[in-house]
Design a protein that fits this description.
With 384 residues, this protein is α/β, with parallel strands linked by helices. The protein folds into two domains: 2-6 and 22-78, DNA polymerase, domain 1; 83-383, Aldolase class I (TIM Barrel), CATH 3.20.20.70. Helix content is 32%, strand content 19%. It is built from eleven helices and 15 strands. The protein has helices spanning 27-36, 43-54, 67-76, 136-140, 148-165, 188-199, 219-228, 242-248, 257-269, 291-301, 326-338, and strands at 2-4, 20-21, 77-78, 83-89, 95-101, 105-113, 118-121, 125-127, 142-145, 175-178, 211-215, 232-236, 277-283, 306-312, 342-345. The strands form three sheets. Strands 1-4-5-6-7-10-11-12-13-14-15 form an eleven-stranded mixed beta sheet. Strands 2-3 form a two-stranded parallel sheet. Strand 6 (105-113) and strand 7 form a beta hairpin. The two termini are 29 Å apart.
């Protein structure tokens, strides 16, 4: 593990004039902004190229825009991403950033390089509004939703950082997963325009198949997301029956498995989307990793086009859970495969810098007061 000084772009404090942060606007929003100030809508495309293709933050450098407009933009607008507080590198190449945001909070974002892709795991909330029992982010509580600029700013800043270290650009972000801090579908107002920027050719220009939204199963919002933008879907499942899922993912009490599976089928129904849904399943020793659970999961998924991502549990203090053994994980995967379910046993990345799945916490001024529930560790008998 290494920690190195931060030398990335760090915007100054906002002055007394409240400016519009252009990173908060997708192409449609930016065109409306220019119309509102009496300019032609095509100015949006010009500015987007400067911001996203060239990383320009100073309007004076946007030389194909008239000087009077540049001066006006300097007075009423800004391009401001979250400020980097720290950056850590794992022994396995994973990198984690800690970003400062308003209200004395901070969020975390993780870059995971691989042979065929470079994935950025992005946060969408300060903490998490849900209460999954095995997740360090949930334990930190919840403060607020992130803005569009705070979501896409993570990608924007990551690319700047990676370009500094790799000027040839071979390690830029190629895939984005909304699997960091927070439940994305409880922040639709910011997440949808952020997703549109990710796949916009004038912004990040990512393939819609390489942008994935992970949800714990907010069913009504799954349908809304399906209508709003074409990206890939991952579902944090973690249990094959309602009784166990109610314990691990309390949201299941509002949207049980029958309702969730129906929403997944609706997601696939039009045939225009990616041809499968990824189901995430964290492996908890003696809790959800037994052979009967694997058989039950295979029955639940049936012939749904799906992939199951088996994730080794990443321990944190007071969790009350233990990681399943490698033998149990491989046995679970084999039972699924033998029943026609595509299953992958994921290897843990970034564990030495607390960047692995379920470990992101940042600094959260908890408005939910959830910490009070954990004065004594839940399920503590399982850790003995």
């Amino acid at each position: 593990m290494s920690t190195h000084p931060v030398t990335f772009f760090s915007p100054g404090d906002a002055d007394e004039v409240e400016r519009t942060n252009l990173l908060d606007l997708d192409r449609e929003g930016l065109r409306a902004f220019f119309v509102e100030i009496g300019e032609k809508p095509f100015r949006a495309e010009q500015v987007m190229k400067w911001v996203y293709h060239y990383g320009v933050t100073d309007f004076d450098e946007m030389t194909n825009i008239s000087r009077p407009l540049r001066e006006r933009l300097s007075a009423i607008a800004e391009i401001r991403a979250p400020q980097v507080l720290s950056c850590q590198d794992s022994a396995d190449g994973t990198r984690k950033w800690l970003f400062a945001i308003s209200g004395g909070n901070s969020i975390e974002c993780v870059f995971i390089p691989d042979e065929d892709r470079n994935t950025l795991c992005v946060s969408t909330q300060v903490g998490c509004a849900l209460d999954c029992s095995f997740c360090a982010t949930a334990r930190a509580g919840f403060n607020r939703n992130l803005t569009v600029s705070e979501i896409v700013g993570q990608i924007w800043m990551a690319n700047r950082s990676l370009l500094r270290d790799h000027p040839q650009g071979e390690r830029g972000v190629s895939n984005v997963v909304l699997m960091g801090m927070g439940e994305p579908l409880l922040n639709m107002k910011s997440v949808v325009p952020a997703l549109k920027l990710m796949i916009d050719d004038l912004a990040f220009a990512l393939s819609k198949r390489h942008v994935t939204v992970s949800t714990s199963g907010v069913v009504p919002k799954m349908d809304r997301l399906h209508e709003a933008v074409d990206v890939s879907l991952a579902v944090s499942l973690h249990a094959p029956n309602d009784e166990l899922r109610n314990e691990l993912v309390p949201l299941n009490k509002s949207h049980p498995l029958e309702e969730l599976m129906a929403a997944c089928w609706r997601w696939l129904a039009d045939g225009n989307r990616k041809k499968h849904i990824m189901f995430e399943y964290v492996m908890l020793d003696g809790v959800n990793d037994r052979p009967e659970h694997a058989r039950e999961l295979a029955k639940l998924l049936g012939d749904m086009p799906s992939k199951v991502n088996l994730i080794p549990f990443n321990p944190f203090e007071g969790s009350g859970y233990r990681r399943s053994s490698e033998e149990a994980i491989q046995r679970f995967a084999k039972i699924l495969r033998d029943r026609g379910v595509f299953a992958i046993a994921r290897r843990t990345r970034g564990e030495d810098i607390d960047a692995a799945c379920g470990q992101l916490a940042g600094e959260v001024e908890d408005r939910s007061k959830r910490w009070r529930k954990f004065a004594e560790p839940r399920f503590g008998e399982r850790a003995s």
